[in-house]
Amino acid sequence: MDKKTYTITVQNNEKCFNNRADQHLLEGVEKSKSKTVTVGCRGGGCGVCKIRVLAGEFNCKVMSRDHISMEEEAEGIVLACRAYPESDLTIEPAEPAFLKMLKKKQRITE
Ligand code: FES
């Protein structure tokens, strides 16, 4: 078990928390009591925990294309419950796809 710990900084609200290398980022967010990332299934199934990694190294377990498109992944958008830090990171919450679709639908019906 890798006990290495990294500092995760949340962009724009200047919050930081420590995250072990063997702990996914959503677990770190929850343990820090930060409410910066929405918590859902914790297993890659719902897509609500999207974040954008702005700086740093990380690795990701397989993510469903229903939740993270190839374009999003290329922009550093990942599911926090599938991502593990490999260095200190700077992150920001990203909008889940279903919220984007709801907002788009709202604009169409307005
Ligand atoms: S919490 Fe459901 S995909 Fe991350």
Task: Provide an overview of this structure.
- The structure is a single chain.
- The protein has helices at residues 25-31, 70-74, 97-109; strands spanning 5-10, 15-20, 50-55, 58-60, 77-79, 83-85, 89-93.
- By secondary structure, the protein is of the alpha+beta class.
- Strand 1 and strand 2 (15-20) form a beta hairpin.
- The protein is globular.
- The chain starts with a strand and ends with a helix.
- The mean pLDDT is 89.
- The protein binds FE2/S2 (inorganic) cluster.
- Residues 26, 39-42, 44-49, 79, 81 line the site of FE2/S2 (inorganic) cluster (FES).
Structural class: alpha+beta
**Strand adjacency order, main sheet:** 2-1-7-3-5
Termini Cα gap: 52 Å
Enumerate how many helices there are, as a single number.
3
Low-pLDDT stretches = none
SSE string, helices as H and strands as E: EEHEEHEEEH
Compose a concise summary of this entry.
The chain has helices at 25-31, 70-74, 97-109; strands spanning 5-10, 15-20, 50-55, 58-60, 77-79, 83-85, 89-93. The chain is of the alpha+beta class and 110 residues long.
Give descriptors for this structure:
110 residues; alpha+beta; two-stranded antiparallel ribbon; 3 helices; globular
Question: Helices, strands, pairings?
Answer:
Blueprint: E1 5-10, E2 15-20, H1 25-31, E3 50-55, E4 58-60, H2 70-74, E5 77-79, E6 83-85, E7 89-93, H3 97-109
Parallel strand pairs: 1-7
Antiparallel strand pairs: 1-2, 3-5, 3-7, 4-6
